[in-house]
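re: that complex we talked abt at group meeting.

here r the seqs, copy pasted straight from the sheet so there may be weird spacing, ignore it
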Amino acid sequence: MTNTDMRPRLGAVALSPAPEGGADPAVVCAGLRKRYGEGATAVHALRGVDLTVQRGELLMLVGPSGCGKTTLISVMAGILDPTEGSCRILGQDMTALAPRPRAAFRARNIGFVFQAYNLNPALTAAENVSVPLRICGAPVREAMRKAEAALDMVGLGDKVESAPGDLSGGQQQRVAIARALVHEPQLIVCDEPTSALDHANGQRVMELLRRVGTVDGRALVIVTHDARIFDFADRIAELDDGRVTRVGTPGALAGAGHGATDPGPAPDGEDMPAVAPCAGPVDAAGGAMADAPHGGNGCRPSAARP
Amino acid sequence: MYQIALKMLLANRGKYLGMVLSLAFTSLIMTQQPAVFASILTRTYGLIDDIAIADIWVMDPQAQSVDESKAMPDTRLSLVRSVSGVEWAVPLHKGQLKARLPDGNTVGCGLIGVDDVSLIGAPGDMKSGSMADLRMSDAVVVDAEGAAKRLAVQVDGGMRPLAVGDGLEVNDHHAVVVGVANATPTFQSQPMLYTTYSRVKLFNKSERKLMSFVLVKAQKGQDHRRLAARIASETGLTALTADDFRARTLRHFIKRTAIIMHFGTTILMSFCIGAVVTGLMFHNFTQDALRHFGVLKAMGTDDRTLLLMILSQALLVAGTGFGIGVGMAMIMGNLPGDPMGMRLSPTILLVGGGAVLSITLVSAALSIRQVLRLEPAIVFKQ
Ligand SMILES: Nc1ncnc2c1ncn2[C@@H]1O[C@H](COP(=O)(O)OP(=O)(O)O)[C@@H](O)[C@H]1O
Ligand SMILES: [Mg+2]
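got the structure back, here u go
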């Protein structure tokens, strides 16, 4: 990769440019189903998910362990193919892309943050941050300059040369955030970004994500079951047993219910009153809960059904 | 991205060193052993190379190689000379004898008896003295290595090489050293004595047959193979061009000894050990780094780049390992006195390099398969 163009070559398939502005959603999932394995041992991780993430929005995916959060965010990041349904990311239908242009699309448009940081121990902090730019073909020196600027932005300007192993967990996650942002992607996906951190560091990481993650129409999707960070979300989508059971503002989901407003955009009529049998007291209060289009009994174990 | 790949490799210092050392070991064995082997092989036909002036070698049909000749009566010489197309033909004796040194020690030596007139068959490169002095009475020439080692003379205060003017006793005959020659060392690394054919007869009075070979020069324009065939059919002897004789000597040597087996087993074993150790370590290294390859994959690195990254890692390992191995082989080959006797030819380096490269390419291919099969979605698995 030696071309000076920061954008990756996209191979044979020409991509329609991702539309700018708030009107076009960042991610549109429709009728997503995902089945792992075949026959009797098949696991239905997603059972028909319709979900839209707007540009400039911070959406959290929450729900019990095994309900399909990681599967859903993997599909939304273009690294996993659904068994059925479609997922448009920044206007691009992922299933229509061959592996190579799809990889190039991810390199250009998506930033990743992981629970386990996933920094490369062989590289310095700055080198780690420069990786997405290098994948896009940026010259090393330019990539390093931008990486150092990104580290500065997350408050780690003095750790440029540090090895990941010499940094605290919170610092490592901030390096990972710098890495997710350095190539200015339009969508950032985070899987449990605060689970490995203590409360103070978790708050700090979320403040950082909130501050830089949704500027310029950038969308941020965070999988979490850390209730302490729910308030950072614009909207929260609750998953259970492979279905979205509720979508709403943090306030609504927290059970305050009455008068809770949903500042998040409400596309596709998702913000409808909910009827979710297994949901908590919020539903009983009849708050501003969102209806899951395929809402059903979320209490049954997911692996037991066809 | 290659820089990242190489940093990943170098950061795993233990595995990197392990792979480099195992390939260095393999490279060393795979170049040093064939080099020693090649050197031994050239020694088996050293005499044929030394007497390059002879186009055709004529010998008793039972002769197998340059080392295993069967003496013929002198009358065969005139038979060969009478074949048309022969420019000249001279006798050559190749045999053994025991020489008693001035200090009383007896040493087994090889003996070459060359044509009295032309001295064809005597080494041309003299360290001291003169080959022409062979025409003086009782004269012998010794080879330099033999003179310095096995034929060294004991004096008060140590050993000194046998030198011009020293006397020897050969089969109860007195002989005088008139020269020391630089000859190609023989396989047996026996000291060699050179003298005239008629003096050989003097040294071996009881022997009737002393002519081991007839050396033939073809007339200008004669096809050597065809002339050799003609000599053979007209004399009933075996006649071979120098090239054919060299090949026959080599074949005989290889057939008679298990040398190919010995070297072959060593080389094959070092290849297998190198392949297994390197392959396993490289596989392990990739396994360790699999998560990071998965992260790169998720972040949009395409398969081609991943493939080239792993290839660059493999090539760095191969290059360093081969470099160190060949470096060590070269140091061994250039030790003072060349105790190993090595011939590190470009072919050997090429074949050794090819073997090391094939090991690393196969290892890389296995790792590449691992990485290409990797689901990028594993990055979200804890
Ligand atoms: N690669 C896989 N193969 C088989 N089953 C899987 C795989 N990945 C996830 N699952 C199953 O799919 C369901 C949803 O998993 P996941 O998306 O990881 O849930 P969450 O992130 O909410 O814990 C679980 O039952 C899980 O065991
Ligand atoms: Mg998960």
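couple things i noticed - The CA atoms of residues 19 and 121 of chain A lie 37 Å apart. Residues 1-22, 256-306 of chain A have pLDDT under 50 and may be disordered.
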